[in-house]
């Protein structure tokens, strides 16, 4: 009986200490939830890092095989660590496979009585063409018409990065960005335009130095209303 009472007293004391600590440090119940989310995110990141580490030897061996297949001597000074560096670079360039939109939008969607167009343009984009594994890069222009919810502007750039850091084709990339924003915000409409240079057309093949590829994805009011679409295209085009 005395042991139970002492345990209860100890539990109450611990709760009080925790409560006082949280109060003293300005933490609210909401911030505790945010900390839990951050902890979960860190656990996911650690899992990804462990997965990358376990896959690294196979990727390194593959790059060694490629270099030898090209007739190179992988034991010479300049190439000794090249397979490892290339393997790590490829993991970085495709890190979007391990990320989701909801990972980066956490706590960044806000209720706001705003129903006019929001545009973020000239977002730098780098990706790898899935056909030849060479880069394509350019600018992304995003517009959306909110339905009482807005997102932190930097998050739009992060969405671009999530989908561009994968093996891609520009047409699919454009749609994925638009649909991800649509799903997360449920806006009246989303518009995405990508202008890119493809190194598979510059370094090889037709070798056309000044060619650019432009793709667009229009959803909701941007697809249905020509005036809204024209307003976005005009604003996105202006310097």
Give a description of the structure.
By secondary structure, the chain is an alpha+beta fold. The protein has nine helices and seven strands. A hairpin with a 5-residue loop joins strand 2 and strand 3 (135-145). The chain is flat, with a radius of gyration of 25 Å. The N and C termini lie far apart (78 Å).
Q: What's the layout of helices and strands?
A:
Blueprint: H1 2-24, H2 29-69, H3 82-93, H4 101-105, E1 109-111, E2 118-129, E3 135-145, E4 149-151, H5 153-164, E5 167-168, H6 170-185, E6 189-198, H7 199-202, E7 213-220, H8 221-224, H9 226-237
Parallel strand pairs: 2-5
Antiparallel strand pairs: 1-4, 2-3, 3-6, 6-7
Helix pairs in contact: 2-3, 5-6
Low-confidence stretches: 1-30
Compute the separation of the termini in Å. Answer: 78 Å
Provide the helix percentage: 40-55%
Total number of helical segments?
9
Average pLDDT rating: 86
Order of helices and strands: HHHHEEEEHEHEHEHH
Q: Which geometry do the CA atoms define?
A: flat
User: How is the biggest beta sheet arranged?
Assistant: 5 strands, mixed
Approximate strand percentage? 15-25%
């Amino acid at each position: 009986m005395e042991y139970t009472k002492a345990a209860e007293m100890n539990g109450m004391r611990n709760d009080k200490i925790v409560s006082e600590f949280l109060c003293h440090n300005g933490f609210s119940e909401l911030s505790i939830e945010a900390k839990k989310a951050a902890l979960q995110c860190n656990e996911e990141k650690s899992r990804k890092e462990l997965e990358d580490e376990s896959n690294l030897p196979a990727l390194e061996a593959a790059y060694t095989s490629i270099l030898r297949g090209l007739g190179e001597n992988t034991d010479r000074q300049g190439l000794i660590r090249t397979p490892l560096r290339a393997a790590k670079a490829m993991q970085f360039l495709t890190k979007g496979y391990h990320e989701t939109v909801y990972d980066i939008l956490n706590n960044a969607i806000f209720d706001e009585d705003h129903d006019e167009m929001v545009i973020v343009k000239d977002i730098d984009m780098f990706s790898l063409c899935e056909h030849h594994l060479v880069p394509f890069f350019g600018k992304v222009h995003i517009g959306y018409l909110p339905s009482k919810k807005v997102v932190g502007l930097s998050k739009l750039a992060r969405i671009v990065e999530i989908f561009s850091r994968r093996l891609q084709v520009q047409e699919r990339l454009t749609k994925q960005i638009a649909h991800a924003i649509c799903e997360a915000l449920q806006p009246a409409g989303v518009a995405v335009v990508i202008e890119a240079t493809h190194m598979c057309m510059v370094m090889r093949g037709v070798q056309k130095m000044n060619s650019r590829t432009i793709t667009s994805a229009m959803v909701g009011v941007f697809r249905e209303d020509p005036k809204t679409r024209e307003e976005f295209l005009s604003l996105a085009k202006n310097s």
